[in-house]
């Protein structure tokens, strides 16, 4: 094939604009991966000619992106909480909005001393994004991440090993089925919460993510309801439950928390100003 420069590759962003809000960034990320350089290099060396192998890889990646495949799947990686995580099509690609869950956990336990020992359970851990991010901030905590799918558990375990977080256990579990009688100071989850009829399921990156990670019955609330109901039994007294949910599910989720007996129930908004995480504390037993 003919030689191609970094600048010519970047110009191809125009061809992605109808399908991606971040066309230019997408191309930059592909080039950084192929050249094994950072973005500054691309601006400093626009006339750099890609080797024939690099050019072939670039065009292959570019065509995959053009057919709609998410950048994270093409690169096999996505950053979350500044941690590089392996991703694949067995689960959700971690979203920046989910970092709110991690921020809230840190906020709720901000008064703890540095040595304070705590336990944390992450339900539907996916890549391990949430549990590994919390572990990176709280090295003295004991944490468990569970997922229903064996392929997803293998992915989360791969990420756990790569980051060398010995205080995190990854287990296969259908929600609480493999948890036995353990109780936790905090339970977090970003469960499937999209209504199966939602037309957005046929648009953009979610087309490449499994329905098992996205949809739930009862207009998206079935798994949230189960976790609120059963989660109570797996929390220590005064423990916290934090759940991510859809932008229009805040009131319904607060109602579920309150009906189950949780106190100090609140919802926080995400980067886009949408209600995104509801949390509450286990009060007196009902
Ligand atoms: C929305 S994804 C969240 C993944 C990850 N926590 C994140 O925030 O990026 C939901 C995850 O829940 C898992 N899941 C679905 N049903 C489950 C169940 N019954 N028990 C455990 N995990 C389940 C899916 O496999 C998927 O990995």
Write the layout of secondary structure elements.
Blueprint: H1 6-11, H2 23-35, H3 39-44, H4 52-66, H5 71-75, E1 77-80, E2 83-86, H6 99-108, E3 119-123, H7 129-137, E4 142-147, H8 150-163, E5 168-172, E6 184-189, H9 211-214, H10 222-231, E7 235-244, H11 250-260, E8 262-269, E9 275-282
Parallel strand pairs: 3-4, 3-6, 4-5, 6-7
Antiparallel strand pairs: 1-2, 7-9, 8-9
The structure holds S-adenosylmethionine (SAM).
| CATH level-four homologous superfamily name of the largest domain | Vaccinia Virus protein VP39
Q: Low-confidence stretches at least 5 residues in length (pLDDT < 50)? A: none
Overall 3D form: elongated
The share of residues in extended strands comes to: 15-25%
Strand order of the largest sheet: 5-4-3-6-7-9-8
How is the biggest beta sheet arranged? Answer: 7 strands, mixed
Termini gap:
71 Å
Elements, N to C (H/E): HHHHHEEHEHEHEEHHEHEE
CATH class of the largest domain: Alpha Beta
User: Would you identify the CATH architecture of the largest domain?
Assistant: 3-Layer(aba) Sandwich
- Put simply, the count of helices is 11
- Tell how many strands the DSSP assignment holds: 9
What level of helicity do the residues show?
Answer: 25-40%
- Give me the secondary-structure category: alpha/beta
CATH fold-type name of the largest domain:
Rossmann fold
Average pLDDT, rounded to a whole number, is: 96
Bound ions, cofactors and other small molecules, one mention each = S-adenosylmethionine
The radius of gyration over CA amounts to 21 Å
The total number of structural domains is: 2
